[in-house]
Amino acid sequence: MEAQIFPTQRAENLLYALFDAAGDGCHVITAGAGPFTAVVPFHNTGNRTYLGQGIEMADVVATTSLALAGEVCGVVLRTNAAEGMSRAWGWRLGGAIATPLTAGELRRAYSTDCLTGEALPLEPGLYCDDAPQLHLI
Question: How far apart are CA 127 and CA 79, in angstroms?
């Protein structure tokens, strides 16, 4: 019998896996399903993760668990690099599994108008990269 993972535990596991995968630098996590979205700015230095000013981990977990309440949802990790460049990684989440998106899959998601299906240009300085495998507990 498989142990049940509660939404807050799922969110916490995901956040810690993303913090670890991100490496040093300034980052933003966007997690969402349907109408719910959680945005988490953070900065990694060495073995420390600093959340954006005024953000508490308990609030982040609660908001992220709401965003992940859908059975299938997604998350994007954006890393802000020097000189206005940003790298984006993405994952499709289903249950307790995070499936990495390829650069092409993420680019299509980022550059498709959700209402019309028309192709849109990526914002200047943003490049999509193949996401690494996340190690979720």
Answer: 10
